[in-house]
C-alpha cells in the first residue's frame, strides 16, 4: 500500500468531517475559537488521537472498514499479508473450486520452482482455475497470492520451512503427514479433490480417466510392467505385506468411503510415527489405510500407461515407446534431490519453467 493512499483518509477526515478552519468568511468568531484555550486542548487531543489511529487506517480493496479491521486486529499494518493470513480453507475452496472440484498440492518455499513447472503443465490442460496451493509456510502463501490472488491458503500452524526439505527426515515426515488432514477437511466441505505432488507434470487431461463413481482413485508406484487391460482393483500386497500405491496422486469424492480412508491414514501415521531407523514417509501409512478399509470402500486403480511411476517412465524407454500417446501424468520419483530431479526433467523436455514461465499464473519466480 503506497504512502499517498495513507494520506487520503486523514485529508478527508480533516477537511470534510472536522473542518479546523472555517471556510466561510461570515464567521466572525474565527480568531476567538481558534485561540481559545479549550479549543486548543481539544484540537491537540484530536491530532494525538488521529496520530495514533493513522498507521492503522488503510484503504481496503473491498470497501472501507470491512477488511481493515482484521489488519488492525492482528497489529499488522501490511494489509495484503494480514488478509491472506486470515484467509480460510473454506473461503479458498469456495473461490477456487470449479464443478465442485479442487486440484490441490502442498508446498513449502523450496518447492516453488516445481510448483511453477507443475502449474504450467496444468494451464496447458485448462484446469489451473481449480488449483489451490496449500502453502506450508508464510513466504509461499504471500508469494503465490501476490501473483495469483486467492489461489494459496495456509492451514495453521505453518511449518518451519528449513525442517521440511530433506526426503526421509523427520521434518519431511511431519510435512507430508498433514496431507490426509488437509484432504479430509476439503472432503468435509463437500468438494471432490485431486491431490498431486508438485514433482509431477501433466501431459494430458486426467479427468476423463476418473471413470465411474468410485470413492478413491490412485496409481501404482511399482515399476513392473502390467498389461494394458490390467485390473482396476487394489493390487495384491508386495514383499512388505502391503501394496505400493503412490500417495502422490489421489482423487477423492466427498463420500463416506473416501473420508474413512483419510481417517484411517491419519490413524496409521499416528500408530507408526517417524523414527531414525525407519525414516518413513507417509506412503506406507496410506497403503495400510487402503488395506484395512478395502472391504468398505470403493477403490479404483488408475491405468498404468496413463499414470506411470517414475521408476517405469524414466527407466524403461521400450515401454515408453510402446505406450506412446497414452501418458497423462508423469511423476519424477525414484530419484532424490532437487538438482537431480530438475536435471532429469530437463533431459526429458519436462522442465517447462526455463522457457515457458510466462504461461504460468505465477510468472517467473
Ligand atoms: C464435473 O464433475 C463430474 C463428476 O464429478 C464429471 O463427471 C464431469 O465430467 C465434470 N464436468 C466437467 C465439465 O469437468
Ligand atoms: C506487504 O505484503 C506483500 C505481500 O507479501 C509484500 O509484497 C509487500 O512488500 C509488503 N509491504 C510492506 C510495506 O511490507
Ligand atoms: C515433528 O513432529 C514431532 C511431533 O509433533 C515433533 O516433536 C518434532 O519436533 C517435529 N520435528 C520437525 C523436524 O519438524
Ligand atoms: C486382458 O487381456 C488378456 C488377453 O486378451 C486376457 O486374457 C485377460 O483376461 C484380460 N485381463 C483383464 C483383467 O481383463
Ligand atoms: C492386507 O494385508 C494383509 C497382510 O499383508 C494381507 O494378507 C491382505 O490380503 C491385505 N488385504 C487386502 C485387501 O489387500
TrEMBL record:
Asked if the record carries the keyword Transmembrane, the reply is yes
One Gene Ontology biological process:
rhamnogalacturonan II biosynthetic process
Give, as one word, the top-level EC class.
Answer: transferase
One GO CC term of this entry? Golgi membrane
Q: Which superkingdom?
A: Eukaryota
* Compartments, record wording: Golgi apparatus membrane
How does the protein's chain sit in the membrane according to the entry? Single-pass type II membrane protein
Q: Name one GO molecular function term.
A: UDP-xylosyltransferase activity
Keyword Membrane included in the entry's annotation: yes
Family the UniProt entry places it in: Belongs to the glycosyltransferase 77 family.
Mind telling me what this protein is named? Glycosyltransferase
What's the source species for this entry? Coffea arabica (Arabian coffee)
Which gene codes for it? LOC113733256
